Amino acid sequence: MPLNSVNTNVGAMVALQSLNRTADELSATQKRISTGYRVADARDDGAAYAVAERIRGDMAATNSANQQLGGVKGLLEVTNSALQNVSTTLQKLKEITVKLADGTITAEQRTQYQSQAKQLTNNVQAFIQDASYNGLNILDDASATAVRVITSGSGTYYSFSSYSAQAQVFNAVSGADTWTAGDAAAALTATGAVGAAITNTLTQLNNFGSYANYIDNQITYNKSILDAQESGLGALVDTDMAKESARLQALQIRQQLGTQALGIANQAPQSLLSLFKG
């Protein structure tokens, strides 16, 4: 191919190809800077993008599980609060029961103590019935069914049992307002009505406290998993902004030089006119 040709300008073609490559690189760099991602879509790196999408799905599932666990945490906190109030009330009822067991009190005094006992047992029942969270009461479940809680984005579950405090606690002491001295004395024994109600309540406080601790630990664990997933995802798809900024400036200079080189190459055929001047 002759170098001095007006039909084929090799220099211009080379300069144009170089300028187009620079433009493509500049476009890719600007995309990385504007999105903050080295891999913004499958065109950038199909394999990395596929992995990133899977990680994003795992993160969304774990976030959803933690949101559900937050609801379970609220339910258990309400339940534990109710049990604590029941326990406090039963301790007061025990004090009144001691007085009812005294055979030397007058009939009027017995009536007053029985009235106090009635109020306390009503409070116990109210605490149990009001222990609802989002329409669910696991403290007043006659069936004492198993509660299954999803704990992670992979679909694992944690199970615990609800409790029938109405039957196991309230019903045992509901007749305290009619107790005679003998009834009250029997109620104070370890297996008596008050003793059994207190034991059952304390047992469930321990149980539900353990459930709440497990949920708290699981929420913390899920957060650590999310942090690790986010860190890994960032390493996979995030762009190095400092590096891209430096590259952008270099490409802009290359683009300017390429434009000038193309202009010079396009002017080359004009020099052939001097060959025909007399």
From TrEMBL:
Residues 193-276 form the Flagellin C-terminal domain. GO terms for molecular function: structural molecule activity. It comes from the Bacteria. It is found in: Secreted; Bacterial flagellum. Its main location: secreted. GO terms for cellular component: bacterial-type flagellum; extracellular region. InterPro entries: Flagellin (IPR001492), Flagellin_C (IPR046358), Flagellin_N (IPR001029). Pfam families: Flagellin_C, Flagellin_N. Gene3D superfamilies: f41 fragment of flagellin, N-terminal domain. Keywords: Bacterial flagellum, Cell projection, Cilium, Flagellum, Secreted. The keyword Secreted applies. Residues 6-142 form the Flagellin N-terminal domain. Flagellin is the subunit protein which polymerizes to form the filaments of bacterial flagella. Belongs to the bacterial flagellin family. This is Flagellin.
